[in-house]
Structures are given as C-alpha cells and as structure tokens.
Design brief:
single chain, about 260 residues, six-stranded mixed β-sheet, globular, binds adenosine-5'-triphosphate
Length: about 260
C-alpha cells in the first residue's frame, strides 16, 4: 500500500487527573489513504470526536502515534500543520465569530499565515462553496444554517489543506440542506483530491460520503469495514449489527447512497 495520508496507531486519550482519570479513547488504529474518505461511526460517547480532536491538536493529552504522510505529529502543533489539515465543526453558528463579517472570517487564516492576494482568494473561496460575492460582508446571523456551514467549509479551505476533519458537519442543519452540504463536500474532495476523516452517528451520511468506516464503542474500534460491506449488511460484530438496525429501522435502500 502507498504511504497513507493519515495514520493513527494505538491512540489513547485520557481526561482528568490523579485517581480520577477516564480513558475516552483506547488503542485506536486506522489508516486513511490519500484522497480517501474515512468514517468514524458509533453511538454517542463512544469517543469519535475525541479521536478527531486529538488528531487536530485540540487535545494534547494523548499517547500513541499520529502520522501525516509518514511524518509523526507531536501533541503540540506547529503553525505549518494547519496548512495541511483543517477541521469543520458540527455547529457553524458556534464556530464562526458572531461579530466578524464573512470577509474577515475568510481573510483571517491568510493573514495569520502571511498569504497575500486576499481579496481574490476570498472571492474565489465564496464562489467555490456556492456563495457569491453578495455574501462577503454579511455577518453569520444574516446567513442560513446551510450558508453558515458553507462559510465554515470555505474557511477550512483558505489555507489549501490536504486533509479535512469533519465532525458531524451536517447534523446541526435542517434535513433539507444536509444533502446540499454533503454534495458540496463530496465535489470539493473530488476536485482537489482532499482526504476526509468524518465523524458521524448517521450511517446514511457515511454511506453517501465514505469508502471505509471504523465502528467505535466505549473508546475502542470494534470493527473496520468498507461501506460496500455495510450496504450489503455484512457486519461481523453484534454491536455493528445493532447500530445498523437502529439506524432508521434499517432499510437497505436507505444505505444505497441516494437517500441522504
Ligand atoms: N473535555 C472532556 N472532559 C472529560 N470527559 C470528556 C471530555 N470530552 C469528552 N469526554 C468524554 O469522553 C467520552 C467520549 O466523548 P466523545 O465526544 O468523543 O464521544 P462521541 O462518540 O463523539 O459522542 P457524540 O456523538 O455524542 O459527540 C465521553 O464519555 C465523554 O463524556
């Protein structure tokens, strides 16, 4: 196999101190190939977001190995790391500064990294996510939920990263706009050969977006399977079977990829 774009090996994440330590992630390992889209699924509290936060540098208290293109990452990240990897959060309202215009939100990463040509890049970014220049000087509260998440995606792409970490990127959105945002993310991945690691509790979303999934329970990966295997309903583990059944009553057509 070619060198994976992202490799996580024996990742452990702990919260708390002294005698009150809780292990939220327990020996998690997986690989994501360049241009691939990998899903982390599992019930609430299984540790999915914590894995993503450790990879993104938001949590520093972990051990194990995280590599990007073979390069080992330290818990504390250098600025250059953020040109390689960016994260999109669940709730765009919480992740965008309420008193900054879209223009400022999109310009800021460029300023921090000393990248010029700001106006051209901001206008192109708005265009790339299906928002025109009319949105440039709006504030987050003047946008719909779907438009806000498009701005969050545009911001994540300003530094032209190769990897996006997507933490339930559509679950805070109206069902009617979820598919639009997922399609936008899919198109962007194809156009730019981006690598995605996506956390979701929604199996229809991974069926639509991902090629491979790791199923998590109580901080551990209990099963790794291709989305094809999931669609054919071929889980080996009882936990995965239950998860599949619980997802919308498990209608096989639901996982055909078009129902999102
Ligand atoms: N900052 C924190 N301090 C202490 N415990 C935490 C912290 N963040 C998460 N946890 C705990 O770690 C476990 C895993 O949480 P995590 O958010 O990763 O789960 P999840 O699978 O992403 O669930 P959800 O889909 O509900 O977000 C949970 O038991 C949670 O309570």
């Amino acid at each position: 196999m070619n060198q994976p774009m992202l490799e996580v090996a024996n990742l452990n994440v702990y919260f708390g101190e002294g005698g009150d330590i809780f292990q939220a992630v327990d020996s998690v390992s997986f690989k994501v190939k360049k241009g691939g889209s990998y899903g982390l699924v599992g019930e609430s509290g299984s540790g999915k977001s914590t894995v993503l936060r450790a990879i993104s540098g938001l949590i520093a208290d972990w051990d194990g190995r995280i590599c990007v293109e073979g390069e080992v990452l330290e818990p504390k990240r250098e600025k250059a790391f953020y040109r390689k990897m960016q994260m999109v959060f669940q709730d765009p309202y919480a992740s965008l500064h309420p008193r900054h215009t879209v223009d400022r939100i999109l310009s800021e990463p460029l300023g921090l990294h000393g990248i010029g040509d700001v106006e051209t890049r901001v206008l192109k970014a708005l265009d790339d996510v299906g928002l025109g220049k009319a949105f440039r000087f709006r504030y987050p509260h003047q946008l719909s939920g779907g438009q806000r998440q498009r701005v969050a995606v545009a911001r994540a792409l300003m530094l032209e990263p190769q990897i996006l970490l997507l933490d339930e990127p559509t679950s805070a959105l109206d069902v009617s706009v979820q598919a639009e945002v997922l399609n936008l993310l899919s198109d962007l991945r194809t156009e730019r050969n981006l690598t995605y690691l996506m956390v979701t509790h929604d199996l229809a979303v991974v069926a639509h977006m991902c090629e491979e999934i790791a199923v998590m329970s109580h901080g551990k990966v209990v099963e790794v399977m291709s989305v094809e295997q999931m669609r054919r309903s071929e889980p080996k583990e009882a936990y995965t079977r239950e998860l599949l059944m619980a997802s919308k009553g498990y209608d096989p057509e639901f996982f055909a990829g078009e129902a999102v």
